[in-house]
Known about the structure:
Layout (H helix, E strand, L loop, with lengths): L1 E2 L6 E2 L8 H6 L1 H16 L12 H6 L6 H9 L15 E4 L6 E5 L1 H10 L3 H16 L2
Antiparallel strand pairs: 1-2, 3-4
Amino acid sequence: MKVCKGCGKKTRAKVSDYCTKCLNKNTDNCLNELQKIRYARRHPNGRPNTIGMKISDWKRRGIIYTDAQLERHLSITQCDCCLKDLAKYRAMDHDHSTGLYRGTICRACNLGLGNFGDDIQLAIENLTRYLNLAINR
């Protein structure tokens, strides 16, 4: 059993250092501490990288690239697909069957390609057929 930091009574709390009453009274202090503990458990290596994958993650996922391609990926300012400026996010586009690097694309293009899968030609044909049918209605 732990001793509550707020009132000094013994408590059965496993995660928090406060009893239920003190936790409710001091929600600002107690909950912040509790959230820090829970966050540290979820992310033992610190804050996750939200802008894109790290170079070590690319290699772990089997993406094959040369030093020149990596240099280009890190220095490019426009998306290879839509030609818009790259803001924060840039994706290293690659063929999922071979792992070969195809180019650097923005988040919107990466999500679009991901939704269509690697068989882009079939997706384009189906979309064209759909749009032609929709126009003729």
